[in-house]
Amino acid sequence: MSGKSTSLYQKALKPLEKAADVLGLESEIIGVLSSPERSLIVSIPVRMDDGKTRVFMGYRVQHNMSRGPAKGGIRYHPSVCLDEVKSLALWMSIKNSVVGIPYGGGKGGIACNPKELSEGELERLTRGYAAAIANFVGPDRDIPAPDVGTNSQVMGWFVDEYCKIAGKCLQGVITAKPLSIGGSRGRETATGRGAFFATLEAAKTFDIPLKGLSVSIQGYGNVAQPIARYLYEVGCKIVAVSDSKGGAYNPEGMHPIKLADFKAKTRSVKGFPDSEEITTSDPVTVDCDILIPAALENQITQKNVDDVKARMIVEEANGPTTPEADKILHERGIIVVPDVLANAGGVTVSYFEWVQNRMGYYWSDEEVDARLNHIMTSAFKDVYQTAKQHEVDTSFTAREKQLHLRTAAYVTAVKRIVDAMQALGRI
Ligand code: NAD
Considering the entire predicted model, what is its pTM? Predict the structure, then answer.
């Protein structure tokens, strides 16, 4: 276990502890909330294309299942380790609770570099992982989904292996499947669409008209491209974008679809016509009204937080802001729509997929979109109400425009989890 990953879980606990403090929870309850219910480590032997067998380490953590079965993605990345998966599982408990969907939090992963594996190796690895954790997952136990390094094809292999072992067709064991095997309409753009609805509600609440505002995005991938398009459609200007290879800046604005097409062709936004070349991290500090971190953890830190110029930050990535930087943003009066709220659209449409699989009845694009809008808008309102309710607490400043939405989101979520644990007689 590396020091880096240990500190990630310690960081992940900070807002939870702050929320527990606001709610006046006893230390035993904080102890229960800080301890994942189940952490599974599996080794997966895989026959590689050269005929040799290689062993991969896989993980699945179920953080808290008081509100329902665990739900959360599967990450394939070389840095995956137990502490990282624990942190991601804890964030899922909070996220699912903030948006009020009936799940606990879970997360899984395999320490591997999927880019270095052939398609056959990836399939054998996924089937091995599905078999290794089959007894712990299921539509009523724990429902995985994709995360960094996995996609709908990986979900297809997983559901196939699981159903063979279960001896029946249980499509609802996993979400974000292809449409042809029980996927939901709207899932691919769901995280960006949900973040857009949260941004609209934040803009309305804080009286910030969106038309003409400049937007900067770090990480122009799956979740970033849709929100760029939706914000462009309501009159925002996309002035900066980046990915792992570099970035592009144009204060006059860039077309989000042309940017996506350019990246699809050249594998980067770097070198986009009529733009100035910037670094991968420059979008965090360029002149803009709205900043959207949509790449990795720990991007807004004590080192660059003073240079952030945005009035509002919408966290599409998980954990992009360190606790130290978060405090400074709050003191500077910058509105932060926190990750556990802003990027919950993906898991919300995954929930819709699970519901549709159980019913065997499928919704149209319009139905999915309307339900997602309702859930994201209501969740923002709940969090904002909680922030107002605790305004006098030392955790919040007295000025309404400086309410700390992250703590409020955690307070909202933790209260619901504690209510469930109490109703079950667990605490
Ligand atoms: P992705 O791989 O499609 O996109 C990530 C983008 O970030 C890529 O374009 C990559 O090149 C870029 N990137 C990587 N390192 C970078 C760096 N140092 N600087 C700038 N850009 C960099 O992944 P995604 O699915 O869009 O996920 C992005 C984030 O959103 C992750 O934190 C993920 O956990 C979170 N998230 C994703 C979903 C979802 O539904 N996919 C849901 C909730 C949260």
Answer: 0.94
Which residue has its alpha carbon closest to ligand 1 atom 1?
A: 221
Residue 403 is given by DSSP the state: -
**Highest mean pLDDT: which of 1-10, 13-22, 406-415?**
406-415
SS3 for 79? Answer: coil
d(Cα 256, Cα 259) in Å, to the nearest integer? 5
SS (H, E, C) 231-276: HHHCCCEEEEEEECCEEEEEEEEECHHHHHHHHHHHCCCCCCCCCE
Q: What is the pLDDT of residues 96-140, one digit of tens each?
A: 999 999 999 999 999 999 999 999 999 999 999 999 999 999 999
Task: Check if the beta carbon of residue 251 is closer than 8 Å to that of residue 239.
Answer: yes
The verdict on whether 18 is a catalytic residue reads no
Please state the atom number of ligand 1 nearest to the C-alpha of residue 339: 44
For ligand 1, atom 32, which residue shows the shortest CA distance?
Answer: 317
Please indicate whether residue 148, judged by its CB atom, sits closer than 6 Å to ligand 1.
yes
